[in-house]
Inositol 2-dehydrogenase/D-chiro-inositol 3-dehydrogenase (Vagococcus luciliae), 337 residues
Amino acid sequence: MINKELRIGVIGVGAIGTEHIKRINHKIKGARVVGIYDVLEEEKKQLADEMGIMFYGSGEDLISSDDVDAILITSIDETHADYVLKALAQEKYVFCEKPLAIDSQSCAKIVEAEVKCGRRLVQVGFMRRYDKGYMELKKLIESKSYGEVLMLHCAHRNPESGLHYTTPMSIIQTAVHEIDVLHWLLQDDYVSVESILPKKQTKMTHTNLHDPQILVLETKNGVVIQLEIFVNCQFGYDIKCEVVCENGELGLVDPHYTYVKHNFSNQTPISPDWQTRFKEAYDTEFQLWVNGVLNHKLEGPSSWDGYVASVITTAGTESTNKGEKIKVMLQEKPSIY
Ligand code: NAP
């Protein structure tokens, strides 16, 4: 039984976990964070004390606590599936940061467990769907004013990624955002994916990372998407989405910025990071999730969407390893989605 104010427990309090806690406690109406768990016990226990909230002895303790109505999972990718399944075993609402799991089999298990609960309890952190630019693009595509969509040219560029970052992570952790949002924009399933490795950037890369990468995705309706993932581009956080239609081109611009013309130059800043670029989208995403949980009606990205994205990321990684195009098939979509 959930009271008027949703009591949230957070598992994994690193970069995005910390942001979401601030967001929930200071911006979002109808919810507050009541407890946390993180493997960095000493440090995060101190944080919990400073915030006057509970530090739980394990993720499992937090999930099963009667004082926690809903779970927010912001721990590392590899831990998501297990925590989501544990939350579903307790029939609790859970918001899981992307990716839902690191492979499609684990996502399929989550879908199966949620279907057994008979209703939607999971939302996945695909916040691009709440970005004003993408929402506008969706409306323009659906208006058909520019004819059918033929192809898309997209890019996901980060200034730098660090030494821990590997070639598969470019697909599983980074490209997964485009894979979800483009599926939602086009309302069209993917049928194949091919990973192409262009000339490697030399300065900021290492043996475990081939950067940049290109994914070519084909959809059931014959749309071809060319997606560049470049996680050490050095010049900014640069997100591109160009939709080429029969009689027009639709695209995103970097929001928030003002250009300066001076000394025979015309300068416009580029977003420095994902926190800045998608700040408003995260706020909207969380307010709608809290409203959805309080009304027992989740409408945001589902476990099914997490599964669809992971079928492509899994096949994309296989394509990198094999050097060939991989055809994809989805299982049948259950009626709760
Ligand atoms: P991060 O800074 O490394 O934070 C993750 C935290 O989880 C760390 O404190 C980590 O501790 C902890 N952790 C590791 N294993 C755990 C376990 N078994 N149980 C509980 N906590 C555990 O990473 P981040 O950048 O915040 O990313 C967190 C998640 O959010 C990732 O899945 C990432 O893909 C996703 N994300 C989404 C977006 C988005 O745009 N939607 C943006 C950024 C990140 P250690 O440091 O000791 O491992």
